[in-house]
Amino acid sequence: MTNQNVVVSDTKSGINMSITVAVSNSSIFATTAQKPPPAPGGGGGGGGYISISRKKILKDLDVNGGWIESMRASSPTHVKSLPSLSASDDHHQNSWMLHHPSALDMFDQIIEASKGKQIVMFLDYDGTLSPIVEDPDKAFMSEAMRKTVKKLASCFPTAIVSGRCRDKVYGFIRLAELYYAGSHGMDIKGPTKSSKFKKAVNQGLLFQPASEFLPMIDEVYQQLVEKMKSTPGAKVENNKFCISVHFRCVDEKQWNDLAQEVKSVVKEYPMLRLTQGRKVLEIRPTIKWDKGKALEFLLESLGYANCSDVFPIYIGDDRTDEDAFKVLRERNQGFGILVSKIPKDTHASYSLREPSEVMYFLQRLVQWKRPSLLRRRPCRV
Ligand SMILES: O=P(O)(O)OC[C@H]1O[C@H](O[C@H]2O[C@H](CO)[C@@H](O)[C@H](O)[C@H]2O)[C@H](O)[C@@H](O)[C@@H]1O
């Protein structure tokens, strides 16, 4: 591990910042900042951050070579398998960390910013609560994570917002006191178990804005299952209001053909659209509904529609989580945390490297709110 001083200039404000960054092959930690980023949100919204360099830096980070490159980059399973960093890559990584510091390193500032406000937690599932694995049916979260989320939900209203079908994600988490928004927010259900945050109005809350698409989604699912039979490793997942076609176990040489096959099916259905996730293509209704809208809907259901005293924290790792990060920036409330080991273009304000860091961050929130709930002090893994 080496320490490097990085000076980053904001051309708009003329502010120069100098940070010390500890760099190893697999980790980058901002250790000191002469002028730390302003406390978060009441200002996840651009205001708190130096906006210039983010765009500039990320322009340079853009992956070339079309969607295959971007698909590959969407989900580097092992950081060790990434090409080794050049000095200029190092600079980009360091700059990115400056603008998206670790939520763990900024914990005290985050708590300070939330003072007097109700924290509401939004958690993505895959890649956030559970590690990315090859078989989507085996993306189990650890028992320790489950216990942590349970404690978290006794401290703050907590919602799971996932691309998966709601029943499946519930099957992995099995906590009835949470709100669940499955199918990228198109299938929202309130807690079935009473909790101090469950409002009477949420008794039996169920919201499915894309229900008329169900027959169409089923039809397309059957077609895709048939088509994908000839591609070893391809997997089609029915997520109720959307469909995932998984590439992770398909030979990269076949990715283009497979994508063409998916497109050829979807083009017959103008009411459906194709989006991209982590080594997955997703087919979903064209309705204007996404994880960001789900977040707003849930805040409203919780009674925080027009409140200034709410502090939503959204943690996610995927492109689809960007819609929620963006909503928080636009509302200038709370903030987003991107789970990523590598720099990505994001509307999130902070970063965490992997689910184990997410768990540690959640434990610290619990410990701060109700120290008695944690027998031992959380320790960083
Ligand atoms: O919104 P999320 O909860 O993050 O769900 C997004 C997709 O996650 C799953 O796929 C991803 O995780 C799999 C298991 O680790 C991995 O094999 C796959 O390559 C990833 O794309 C899930 O299977 C999808 O249906 C979700 O849409």
Please give a structural write-up.
The strands form 3 sheets. This protein has an 8-stranded mixed β-sheet with strand order 8-7-6-5-4-13-14-15, sandwiched between helices. Helix 1 (51-61) packs antiparallel against helix 3, helix 5 packs parallel to helix 11 and helix 7 runs antiparallel to helix 8. Strand 9 (235-238) and strand 10 (243-246) form a beta hairpin. With 381 residues, it is of the alpha/beta class. It has a domain at 1-75 and 130-308. It is built from 11 helices and 15 strands. Mean pLDDT is 82; it is low at 1-65. The longest helix is centred in the middle third of the chain and has 15 residues, at 214-228. Bound molecules: the ligand O=P(O)(O)OC[C@H]1O[C@H](O[C@H]2O[C@H](CO)[C@@H](O)[C@H](O)[C@H]2O)[C@H](O)[C@@H](O)[C@@H]1O.
Ligands: ligand L263DTV3
Major beta sheet, specifics?
Answer: 8 strands, mixed
Strand order of the largest sheet: 8-7-6-5-4-13-14-15
Taking pLDDT < 50 over at least 5 consecutive residues as the criterion, the unreliable ranges are 1-65
Average pLDDT metric: 82
Helix percentage? 25-40%
Total DSSP E strands: 15
Rg value: 21 Å
How many angstroms separate the termini? 17 Å
Shape: globular
Q: Beta-strand percentage?
A: 15-25%
Order of helices and strands: EEEHHHHEHEHEEEHEEHEEHEHEEH
Structural class: alpha/beta
> How many individual helices?
11
Structural features:
Trehalose_PPase, single chain, binds the ligand O=P(O)(O)OC[C@H]1O[C@H](O[C@H]2O[C@H](CO)[C@@H](O)[C@H](O)[C@H]2O)[C@H](O)[C@@H](O)[C@@H]1O, eight-stranded mixed beta sheet, disordered N terminus, 20% strand, alpha/beta, 381 residues, 11 helices, globular, four-stranded antiparallel beta sheet
